[in-house]
């Protein structure tokens, strides 16, 4: 079976960290910021700026949100703030504040930008999703791959331990070579999606480089690979 590395482009990914939730999307796509003020509360969505400054993006009163800044590309949909044209500069810290009488609750979340590969491969081929990390001199490491935010493959010296492990593999030398790349064999249309790579130790997990790959599986021949 032929292995292909049909990497088409290097594109910015957006990752939104909110408590234990992880949302992700491509540059110039749409991003939704979940908002959770109760109908009887008043609320504010702020962008936290440098030197203690803030920018008010939206306000919540009488059970409805209204956009204050960036009205040309920020919309309200089902009590959510939607960036219809995400910019690289949108990365940063945001703060949601909801209050009623003397009670006030605040929640901060961070929108981060990382670079990600975009890959395309024909059905039934084998594809290598690249990821690298510094592993020299570090003990107790594991490699984790996720697809669309869900655990897909955990790699220890014994190999991938989460189904469908029979088609997924990471080099057994990853801990010495720093090559965390994921090989997917006999690729099927259902394998299309966003893949994220992490290395984890006792202190937590850290994104590899590149941190993410968007895989598209095409039925039929894939056009010539080129960088966009």
From TrEMBL:
Record's keyword terms, sorted: Membrane, Transmembrane, Transmembrane helix
Residue ranges annotated for the Ig-like domain, each copy included: 107-216
InterPro entries: Ig-like_dom, Ig-like_dom_sf, Ig-like_fold, Ig_sub, Ig_sub2, Ig_V-set
Residues spanning the membrane: 7-28
Keyword Cell wall biogenesis/degradation part of the UniProt annotation: no
Pfam families: V-set
Designated name of the protein: Ig-like domain-containing protein
Species assigned in the record: Cyprinodon variegatus (Sheepshead minnow)
